Amino acid sequence: MHTLKTIESPDTKRPGRIPPGQRQVADFPVLHYGSIPRVDPKKWTLKLFGLVEDEKSLSLDEFLALPHVLVHSDIHCVTTWSRLDNLWEGVQTLALMNIIRIMPEAKFAIIHASGDFTTNLSLQDFFQEDVLLAIKHDGHVITPEHGYPVRLVVPRLYFWKSAKWVTGIEFTSEDRPGFWESHGYHNRGDPWLEERYS
Ligand SMILES: Nc1nc2c(c(=O)[nH]1)N[C@H]1C(S)=C(S)[C@@H](COP(=O)(O)O)O[C@H]1N2
Ligand SMILES: [Mo]
To answer: How far apart are the C-alpha atoms of 7 and 191, rounded to whole Å?
Structure first.
C-alpha cells in the first residue's frame, strides 16, 4: 500500500499539550453558525482568486488529484475544549503554491465557506507546513457536520480558523476580519497566548 507522508504539528510535541484555560475532551463536538450545508460533490469547486496571476476553480476530482499528506495535530476550541491526537488527510496549503502564482502584494488569505462564512489568516499562518485542506479525519471521510467535502485545518490557532465547507481562498493585500473575527473573536487566535476575544 502507498504510504502518505505524516507531518507532526509542533504542538503535539510539547511536554504539556493543553493550553491555559482549556480542558481535554474525548469526543468531537460540532460547532458552527447556521445550518449544515448539503454539498453536492459533483458541483463543488475550490476557487483560488484575488491577488494571483491566474485565478483557478478546481473541481473535487482536480483537487483530489493533488498530492495528499497526513497531519497529526491537536484541536483547541475557544469554547475551552481540546481534542488531542487528530489525524487529518488532505492537501497541504503549501501544495497550492505549485498550481497558482501568488502576487508579491498578497499578504493575507481570506477563506470562504458555504453560507458566506469567512475567516482571515496572514499568509505566514496560512502557509505553515501543518496547515491543510482536509478530506478525512481519523481515517474517515469528513462528515457533513464537520465540513464535508473539504475543510481547512490550522492546527496552531483556535479551531474557529479551521473553516468547514470551504469554497474558496482569496488572496489580499489588506487584512479583512472574517465572520467570528467581526463578532468579537481575536484576529489571530493563538491558544498558547489565550488570544480568545478582541
Ligand atoms: N463554515 C464554517 N466553518 C466553521 C465555523 C462556522 O460557523 N462556519 N465555525 C468554526 C468554529 S467556531 C469552530 S469551534 C469549528 C468547529 O469545528 P467542528 O464542528 O468540526 O468541531 O469550526 C469552525 N469552522
Ligand atoms: Mo468555536
So the answer is: 20
